[in-house]
Write a structure and sequence with these properties.
Layout: H1 2-12, E1 26-30, E2 33-36, H2 37-47, H3 59-81, H4 88-102, H5 109-123, E3 125-135, H6 142-160, H7 165-171, H8 180-184, E4 187-191, H9 198-205, E5 212-218, E6 221-232, E7 236-245, H10 252-270, H11 275-282, H12 286-289, H13 307-315, E8 326-327, E9 331-341, H14 346-359, H15 363-377, E10 381-382, H16 384-391, H17 397-400, E11 414-418, E12 421-424, H18 425-435, H19 444-466, H20 468-471, H21 473-502, H22 504-513, E13 519-520, E14 523-531, H23 534-543, H24 551-558, E15 566-574, E16 589-596, E17 599-609, E18 612-613, H25 620-642, E19 645-647, H26 649-654
Antiparallel strand pairs: 1-2, 1-19, 3-4, 3-6, 5-6, 7-9, 8-9, 10-11, 11-12, 13-18, 14-15, 14-17, 16-17
Helix pairs in contact: 1-21, 3-21, 4-21, 5-14, 5-15, 18-19, 21-25, 22-25
Length: 658
C-alpha cells in the first residue's frame, strides 16, 4: 500500500511551468507510441525541480532521466498490451482519481476561496438569535407559498414595530413544527458558522444586535429573525471535572451526603491535594475519572455537556484554576480549566474549512458561478418553445416515480444547446425516466422544473468535463500520469512486488545462488557498562551474576544514591559495527576501556559467534527486496527485446542547456 501511495504521489505532483511544443517534436517512441517534447519536459521538470539551478537540462541529467522514463514507458506499454486498462477495477480507480482532479475545474476558484475566507471570519463570532418560522415546502404550490409569505410578513411587521419577539413567536407557533417558538419564544441559543442552514446564517451574520430581519427563505420555509447577541469566539476548552452523582433518584439524606462529599473534596483541593488524584479516587463519573477527570475538548456551543459545566469552565480565568462545587441534573461537580485554545490562524484552518465548505450547501455558490461561466464560454442557448411544449407532458405520475414518455409524442424539439451539441426533448425525457423518485415532490410542475435544471447542470458540466484535457494542458498531463501510474503499479505488483513475496521457491533459489552476499562477520553477545569510575565498574564485575540475571537489580542498588553511577546496553554486535569494541580483544569474559567519552567502560563478552552465512529466515525481508530487484532487471530486459524503442537523439540534444 505504501508503494502505491508513494507512486501515485510521484506521478500526480503538479508543475507550474509547462513549455508549449509542437506536437511533431518526438523525444522517443515505444513500439510506435510517441512521447512528445511537451510530455517529456513536463515530467522531467517536475521530478527534477530540486536541481533547477544546478543540473537541470544538462546532458548528464537529461540522459539519466531519458533512461528512467523509457523504462517507465516500457512497463506502461506492456500493461496496456495485456489489457490491464480495460479491467473494471482499473476503470473504477481511474475514474475516481480523474473525478477528483476535475473538481477544481468545475467550480469557481475565486468564489470558493471567498467562501472559505468568509467562514473563517464568521468563526471569530458566536451569535444568538430567535426566529419565527412559517413552514412551507420548497415544492409547495404558489398559492401556499404566498400564504406562508404573507404570514411571515405579518410576524415581521409586528416584531419590527417593537412587540415582544417571544410573544409574537408564540402567536405563530401553530404554523410550524419547530417547538422552539412555543417552548422558548423562538430562542435558538448561541451558534456559529456551519451550525445553521446557509441562508439563515447569512441573515444573522449580516444583522445588527437587536435587529429584526426577514422574511428569509430556506428549504424549511420563511423565517423572521432577531439577532439577540453577538460575542467573540470563546476558544476550545480542555477541562477536567470531579462528579458526585445525584441522578439516580436519591433520597434527601443521600442528597445531603453528596453535597457534603463534594464540599470535602473541595476543601482537600484548597489544601493542595492534586485534582487529578482526587478525580481518580473520588469522582463518580468513571469514564473521565480514569483520565484524572479529563474531558474531551469542547467549545462554548457543545451540546454533549451540561451547560453548567461549560459555563463554569469558561468562567475560570487561568489554566489550573478550579471552580467551587456546583449542581447539574446529574450531580455535584468541581471543574478545572486545563487549557483554553484560541482560534487558530487562517493558514492553519484553511484546509479544514475548505473541506467543510465543499460539504456544505454554500458550495452551490461556487457551482453556480462555474455553471454561468461555462455557459457563457460555450454560447449556451435555450429554446423556450421546446421547453414550454414539454411542460404539457407533466402529470402526477412523476410524483409517484412512474412517469413514462407519451408514445404519441415525438419529443424532437430542441430544448438547449451548448457549443455545437444540441439536446432535445427526448434527451430530457430519458433523464426524467431515470431520475424520478417516488414521493420526492408534491408538485409535478415543480418536480419537472427542478429536474430540468438538474439535467441542464449535469449536461453543462459533463460537456465541460469532456473538454478539460483539450482546454488545460496541465490537466491533461496530470490525468495521463495518474492513468499510467495506476497501470505501472498494477503491472509492477504482478511482475515484481507480490510475485517476489509469494514465490517462496524463487526466494530460496535466489538466496542459494547469492549466499555469498549474505554473510555474518564474527559477532559477539555483549554487555557494555558505562560507569562513573573504576570503583563502580569493579562493584559490577564482582556482583554480576554469571547469567547476567541480576543486572536490573544492580541498576537499582548502585544508582540508588547516584542516578549517574552507571548505565548499560546489551546487544549482539558484528565485528566493526561498534567503535568502542574496536579498542579491545574479542574474547569471552571482561574487558575495560578506562576512558571513553568521559566514562569508565566495563565490557562483558557473553558469547563469541564465528563468521557464517546468514540464514534465510534471519534476512528474509532483505532477500525479498533483492529478489524484487532481480526480477525487475530481468523483466526490463525482456521488455526491451519485446518492444522497439527509438530515441530521437537530435531532439534530446536540442534540450541541453549546459
Amino acid at each position: 500500500m505504501l508503494k502505491k501511495t508513494l507512486l501515485l504521489f510521484i506521478v500526480s505532483a503538479a508543475i507550474n511551468n509547462i513549455f508549449a511544443q509542437k506536437p511533431e517534436e518526438i523525444v522517443f517512441t515505444v513500439d510506435g507510441e510517441n512521447v512528445t517534447v511537451e510530455e517529456f519536459k513536463y515530467i522531467y521538470e517536475k521530478n527534477n525541480s530540486i536541481n533547477k539551478d544546478e543540473n537541470l537540462y544538462s546532458k548528464t541529467s537529461l540522459d539519466e532521466y531519458l533512461d528512467l522514463y523509457t523504462k517507465f514507458k516500457l512497463k506502461v506499454h506492456e500493461a496496456k498490451s495485456l489489457g490491464l486498462d480495460t479491467t473494471e477495477k482499473f476503470k473504477r480507480e481511474f475514474e475516481t482519481y480523474r473525478n477528483q482532479l476535475a473538481q477544481p475545474y468545475l467550480h469557481d476558484k475565486e468564489v470558493s476561496e471567498k467562501l472559505v475566507e468568509e467562514a473563517y471570519e464568521r468563526m471569530k463570532w458566536e451569535l444568538r438569535a430567535s426566529h419565527i418560522l412559517i413552514d412551507v415546502a420548497e415544492d409547495a404550490y404558489p398559492s401556499d407559498t404566498m400564504k406562508a409569505y404573507n404570514l411571515a410578513m405579518e410576524a415581521y411587521n409586528r416584531a419590527k414595530a417593537g412587540e415582544d419577539f417571544a410573544k409574537v413567536a408564540g402567536d405563530f407557533a401553530q404554523y410550524t413544527k419547530d417547538p422552539t417558538l412555543k417552548e422558548r419564544g423562538g430562542d435558538l441559543g448561541y451558534f456559529t458558522v456551519f451550525n445553521m442552514i446557509y441562508p439563515f446564517e447569512n441573515a444573522c451574520y449580516n444583522a445588527k444586535v437587536n435587529e429584526v430581519v426577514g422574511p428569509v427563505r430556506t428549504r424549511f420555509g420563511y423565517h423572521v429573525i432577531k439577532l439577540t447577541d453577538k460575542r467573540p469566539y470563546q476558544g476550545e476548552m480542555t477541562a477536567a471535572h470531579i462528579m458526585i452523582r445525584t441522578d439516580l433518584g436519591t433520597e434527601e439524606e443521600q442528597e445531603v451526603m453528596a453535597k457534603n462529599k463534594i464540599d470535602s473534596i473541595y476543601n482537600r483541593l484548597l489544601k493542595g491535594e492534586k485534582f487529578e488524584d482526587l478525580a481518580r479516587t473520588e469522582s463518580q463519573h468513571y469514564t473521565s475519572a480514569q483520565q484524572g477527570g479529563r474531558l474531551r475538548p469542547f467549545n462554548a456551543l457543545a451540546t454533549w455537556l451540561p451547560t453548567e459545566i461549560i459555563d463554569e469552565a469558561y468562567a475560570l480565568k487561568e489554566d489550573g484554576d478550579f471552580s467551587k462545587p456546583f449542581k447539574t441534573e446529574y450531580g455535584w461537580h468541581i471543574v478545572k480549566r486545563l487549557h483554553l485554545e484560541p482560534l487558530k490562524s487562517y493558514d492553519d484552518m484553511k484546509e479544514f474549512l475548505k473541506k467543510r465548505v465543499e460539504r456544505d450547501t454554500r458550495s452551490q455558490r461556487s457551482t453556480k458561478a462555474a455553471l454561468r461561466r461555462i455557459k457563457e464560454e460555450n454560447r449556451f442557448k435555450e429554446y423556450k418553445k421546446g421547453i414550454n411544449a414539454f411542460k404539457t407532458e407533466y402529470d402526477t405520475l412523476l410524483l409517484d416515480g412512474n412517469w413514462v414518455p407519451n408514445p404519441e409524442v415525438d419529443y424532437n424539439r430542441k430544448m438547449f444547446m451548448i457549443g455545437k451539441s444540441k439536446f432535445y426533448q427526448y434527451d430530457f425525457a430519458k433523464y426524467l425516466e431515470a431520475n424520478q423518485k417516488k414521493n420526492q415532490f408534491k408538485n409535478a410542475a415543480y418536480a419537472a422544473d427542478y429536474l430540468y435544471d438538474k439535467f441542464v447542470e449535469e449536461t453543462v458540466f459533463n460537456y465541460e468535463d469532456s473538454r478539460l484535457e483539450l482546454k488545460y494542458p496541465e490537466f491533461k498531463n496530470i490525468v495521463r500520469e495518474y492513468y499510467e501510474g495506476i497501470l505501472l503499479f498494477e503491472i509492477t505488483d504482478n511482475e515484481v512486488w507480490t510475485k517476489a513475496m509469494k514465490d517462496t521457491v524463487g526466494q530460496r533459489e535466489f538466496y542459494n545462488n547469492n549466499v555469498n552476499n549474505y554473510q555474518w562477520k564474527k559477532r559477539a553477545d555483549v554487555l557494555i557498562f558505562y560507569c562513573q569510575d573504576k570503583t563502580v565498574a569493579d562493584k559490577i564485575k564482582a556482583e554480576l551474576a554469571a547469567d547476567n540475571s541480576n543486572v536490573n537489580e544492580l541498576v537499582k542498588t548502585l544508582n540508588a544514591n547516584n542516578s549517574m553511577a552507571f548505565s548499560y546496553t546489551k546487544d549482539l554486535y558484528e565485528e566493526g559495527q561498534e567503535e568502542l569494541l574496536n579498542e579491545v580483544d574479542w574474547k569471552q569474559g571482561f574487558a575495560v576501556v578506562p576512558d571513553y567519552k568521559g566514562r569508565y567502560v566495563l565490557i562483558k563478552f557473553n558469547e563469541i559467534l564465528p563468521a557464517r552465512a546468514k540464514k534465510l529466515r534471519e534476512i528474509k525481508g532483505l532477500v525479498i527486496a533483492d529478489y524484487q530487484d532481480y526480477l525487475e532487471k530481468n523483466w526490463l530486459a525482456k521488455l526491451k527485446q519485446k518492444y522497439k524503442v527509438v530515441v530521437n537523439q537530435s531532439v534530446v540534444d536540442s534540450m541541453v542547456k549546459s
